[in-house]
Design brief:
Elements: H1 2-8, H2 13-39, H3 45-58, H4 74-96, H5 105-113, H6 120-131, H7 140-159, H8 162-168, H9 172-182, H10 185-214
Helix pairs in contact: 1-2, 2-4, 2-5, 3-4, 3-10, 4-7, 4-9, 4-10, 5-6, 7-8, 7-9, 8-9
Length: 227
């Protein structure tokens, strides 16, 4: 269970969530893209991306589904639910642009796009460290608090900065407000815009690289001074 894994290694909560999301949600996202391409052979990547964005923007706000939970683990579950939904959106957008959503590389991209890490290199290092993490050493309560803070940080960045962080500082009562803010449709749409820009650009780069490798393409030479 993902919550158990997160609580075992709370310092790597977002990284473990990303790895698990890729494993669990990636195949479904790939099947979604394959099925739509069969049904609508004329649909392009941008069209599929728009469908995914509309679908997951409508589903945003699922954090409220866990509001009835109580106890020290409740904030971890609520925060994880919102991030899980965001992961599903990103993986569907990756599939829309022809990337394998179940490939392990998607985990680091997911962490960068959801603003857990500032760049891909740091995200890849964190994912590698999470894979190598040892067993838990602290009691459950302390681990739950650390996991909640690690999961809350990217949501706070997406949903309203310091005001949201002040809500999180109260942890149990603040988590509901945080998940509601981070789970709304506007946040999902901003995340979709970042992911679309990223995967569209990498698809273009991959296509250009393939073209250059399979043709006699030669970049134009700049004239030397005096010529």
């Amino acid at each position: 269970m993902i919550v158990a894994r997160v609580l075992d290694h709370p310092g790597f909560a977002p990284e473990l969530l990303a790895l698990t999301a890729v494993e669990a949600l990636g195949p479904g996202a790939a099947e979604w893209a394959r099925r739509l391409r069969e049904l609508y052979p004329g649909a392009d990547a941008d069209g599929l991306a728009r469908l995914a964005t509309r679908r997951f923007a409508r589903q945003a706000g699922v954090g409220g589904a866990t509001a009835a939970l109580t106890g020290v683990v409740a904030p971890v579950v609520e925060l994880a639910v919102v991030l899980w939904s965001q992961a599903n959106l990103v993986l569907h957008l990756a599939a829309a642009y022809g990337h394998d959503p179940a490939h392990p590389a998607r985990a680091a991209e997911l962490l960068t796009l959801t603003q857990v890490h500032p760049d891909l290199a740091s995200a890849e290092s964190a994912v590698a460290a999470a894979r190598a993490a040892q067993g838990p050493e602290e009691e459950l309560g302390l681990r739950a608090v650390e996991a909640a803070w690690r999961l809350a940080a990217p949501l706070a960045a997406q949903a309203g900065g310091w005001l949201v962080l002040r809500l999180v500082s109260r942890l149990l009562p603040g988590t509901a407000a945080l998940t509601a803010a981070a789970g709304n449709s506007s946040v999902a749409e901003r995340l979709a815009a970042r992911a679309t820009t990223h995967y569209r650009a990498t698809t273009h780069y991959r296509a250009t690289t393939h073209y250059r490798a399979t043709t006699d393409y030669r970049p134009a030479r700049r004239p030397r001074p005096g010529h």
